[in-house]
Amino acid sequence: MELLRFATAGSVDDGKSTLIGRLLYDTKSIFEDQLEAVERTSRDRGDEHVNLALLTDGLRAEREQGITIDVAYRYFATPKRTFIIADTPGHIQYTRNMVTGASTASLALVLVDARNGIVEQSRRHAFLASLLRVPHVVLCVNKMDLVDYDEAVFNRLKDEFRNFATKLDIGDLSFIPISALKGDNVVHRSENMPWYDGSSLLHHLEEVHIASDRNLIDVRFPVQYVIRPQSSAYHDYRGYAGTVAGGVMKPGDEVLVLESGLTTTIESIDTADGPVDEAYPPMSVTVRLADDIDISRGDMICRPQNKPEATQDVEAMVCWLTDEPLQDRGMYAVKHTTRNVRAQVRDIEYRIDVNTLHRDESATSLTLNEIGRIKLRTTKPLFVDQYRRNRTTGSFLLIDESTGSTVGAGMIL
Prior knowledge:
About 20% of the residues lie in helices and about 35% in strands. The chain is of the alpha+beta class and about 425 residues long. Strands 7, 8, 9, 10, 11, 12, 13 and 14 form an 8-stranded antiparallel β-sheet that branches. Strands 2-3-1-4-5-6 form a 6-stranded mixed β-sheet, sandwiched between helices. It has a 6-stranded antiparallel beta barrel with strand order 15-21-18-17-22-23. Strand 17 and strand 18 form a beta hairpin. The model is unreliable at about 60-70 (pLDDT under 50).
């Protein structure tokens, strides 16, 4: 079945974890012992209702404070589709965790409390979803039960968020009024909101069209590993393993290998289940080529007439992920697809205020959770596409060479 990755986003106490718990509960995707444990913990805490947020808030600190700190991943399936959920934190100090959870998502659920409306974190997370090129965004106006299911409240928040979203690059925007606590419009349509003629949240998640979100035009195959068995039965076998990052590859296709620039043809494409007639994102395959070419980890297989840009000068938006600030002229390791190089920060063009979208061109550094546009100069060429065209070949990580810690996430412009 088709897989949909989606992430929750929004401010603190807007009900993100409760919504995920409700989805899992109403789709019968949790085990009886899990439910019993949540019911027992809810009673011990004195909660009036079964606290479904406990299904995702697993850290002790999260349960003690009633907040989400780290990204929690949960899995469930319906007869139509399988899902991977990233429940991300709402606190401003955990913005980096939200970036991590949304970076691979095809859809973002931005929750707002119907009583509080669109707040700073709502706008911040909507901007981050736009920056991360999440193709589909759904504004869930939660806690409608606490405003007596008032249509006017929903319409006011819908108009306010739509006005803000016009400043962003969001391709598909939807609006759903819900009550995660009561289950209204989560899995089943609510009788309490007869004025709402749209689908329930689960129905939207099952039906949203995601097949066209993948880039099936530009063939991109970063080589991860060279398979050369030592067994005498396979002494002639040489394959190049990796995950298809873009396009469709078929046996017989002419391909170009970067960085050598040599061309050849695909002889066969193998998987763990045997040969296949074609490969496309995000399949993990082994490609065999007709000619013996010097290819190693970090090289890129593409089409001769459609190749990524090979460059040592990179401009990117970077989200800073650590307490130690990014410094102008600083040296970092760069991980881009399967290629590892070193790079120097040549310029910090501006830092962006994610609440007002104002650009601070006087910025000389980026600190934890800040986002800015920078220029890098790498020691070896990277084979890149714009992030808006390919989220895999258009993204990279910055790594502190002394500690090995990931310090920044970049999106190539």
